């Protein structure tokens, strides 16, 4: 990306931090990772994709969250507990027979982004698992309480995980 395009994207995201990441990427013909990287530094931190299993197993202890898969054709949302998983046969396998389960190609995870920004008039916090192509594999959002505020217990875990992974990725 040219420096003028990058500066324009950074300015756009500073003015519109709640923009839908995938929409901005499509409109500007850049990757979702480039859009996340263009957010103000106070809104995003990155960690190593090598921490995929550790991050997912930490999230498995948070309780009810919302996991979103956003493609060109659909937006899938799952609200519930993310199961713990383990690596086997080339996949990170979510270990429960019902609800959210499946097999994730963890080795394609190049980075993990921790994003806190306004969205639709409210604070939001999510983890974006970014693949080697710069796309977002999926996002896990901090849950909300009965007043629609971010759950403070999960937000603390979100911050602690970001701190651990940021340290691990810097090593």
Describe the structure.
It comes from Bradyrhizobium valentinum. InterPro entries: Heme_Transport_Util_sf (IPR053733), HutX-like (IPR010413). This is Coproporphyrinogen III oxidase. The chain is an alpha+beta fold and 171 residues long. It has helices at 3-15, 21-28, 32-38, 52-59, 152-170; strands at residues 44-48, 64-70, 75-81, 85-88, 91-94, 102-104, 109-119, 122-131, 136-141. The protein has one domain (42-165): 3-Layer(aba) Sandwich (Heme iron utilization protein-like fold). It has five helices and nine strands. The strands form two sheets. A six-stranded antiparallel beta sheet has the order 1-7-8-9-2-3, with helices on both faces. A hairpin with a 2-residue loop joins strand 7 (109-119) and strand 8. The two termini are 27 Å apart. The model has no long low-confidence stretch (mean pLDDT 94).
Major beta-sheet overview: 6 strands, antiparallel
Can you list the strand order of the major beta sheet? 1-7-8-9-2-3
User: So what's the overall shape?
Assistant: globular
Q: What is the count of distinct domains?
A: 1
CATH architecture: 3-Layer(aba) Sandwich
Whole-Å distance between the termini? Answer: 27 Å
Q: What integer value in Å does the Rg equal?
A: 16 Å
CATH topology, by name, is Heme iron utilization protein-like fold
Query: What would you give as the CATH superfamily?
Result: HemS/ChuS/ChuX like domains
Return the string of H and E elements.
HHHEHEEEEEEEEH
The count of strands amounts to 9
Supply the helix-strand structural class.
alpha+beta
Enumerate how many helices there are, as a single number. Answer: 5
CATH class: Alpha Beta
Report mean pLDDT, rounded to a whole number. Answer: 94
């Amino acid at each position: 990306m040219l420096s003028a395009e990058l500066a324009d994207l950074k300015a756009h995201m500073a003015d519109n931090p709640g923009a839908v990441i995938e929409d901005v990427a499509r409109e500007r013909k850049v990757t979702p990772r480039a859009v996340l990287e263009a957010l103000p530094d106070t809104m995003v931190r990155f960690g190593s994709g090598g921490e995929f299993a550790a991050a997912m197993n930490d999230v498995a202890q948070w309780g009810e969250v919302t996991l979103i898969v956003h493609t060109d054709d659909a937006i899938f949302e799952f609200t519930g507990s993310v199961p713990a998983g383990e690596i086997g046969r080339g996949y990170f396998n979510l270990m429960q027979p019902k609800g959210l389960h499946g097999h994730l190609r963890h080795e394609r995870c190049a980075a993990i982004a921790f994003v806190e920004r306004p969205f639709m008039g409210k604070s939001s916090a999510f983890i974006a698992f970014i693949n080697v192509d710069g796309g977002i594999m999926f996002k896990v959002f901090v849950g909300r309480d009965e007043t629609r505020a971010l759950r403070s217990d999960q937000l603390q875990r979100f911050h602690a995980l970001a701190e651990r992974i940021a340290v691990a990725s810097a090593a």
